[in-house]
Amino acid sequence: MSQREEKVLSLHTHGYNCAQALICSYQDILPFEEKELFKLTEGLGRGVAGLEEMCCIPILIAMIYSCLKTCDGNVENPQSKLKSYACGKCLAMDFKEQAGSLCCHTLLKENKEKKRCCSDLLKMGIAILDDCLK
Q1: Where are the domains of the chain?
Q2: Rounded CA gap, 111 and 89, in Å?
Q3: CA 83, CA 102: separation in Å to the nearest integer?
Q4: What is the pLDDT along the chain (134 residues), one digit of tens a residue?
Q5: How far is 119 from 70, CA to CA, in rounded Å?
Q6: Residue 103 three-state SS
Q7: CA angle in degrees (0–180, nearest 5) for 11-12-17
Q8: CB 60, CB 98: distance < 8 Å
Q9: Are 68 and 29 a contacting pair, CB within 8 Å?
């Protein structure tokens, strides 16, 4: 298990929701303090605001990848959106292929059936993102 996977599991075990645990495990390479990341993502847990719709993991891996790799940061004349969309879509589809769904409710149901937990999905998201960040 990678150090980042260990960190995401530790944060999740200590009460961080999935979104907080995932993004805060990348704090060392993101241009934000952990507290800012924690606050920013609090409402994204349990399928975005507890609605159990879209899983936050593919959302966060797309956000992190965009921040680190594809966004040009040009607020006057943004030109990088299409590249960020394409990369985010690839990351989300990789997650869907491995996890079985992008829907939090479905994933929670499958977790019970497959005897896995959200921590397993967080590790999966980390592996997908880390592979693309290489």
Answers
A1: 3-133
A2: 23
A3: 21
A4: 899 999 999 999 999 999 999 999 999 999 999 999 999 999 998 888 888 899 999 999 999 999 999 999 999 999 999 999 999 999 999 999 999 999 999 999 999 899 999 999 999 999 999 999 99
A5: 27
A6: strand
A7: 115
A8: no
A9: yes
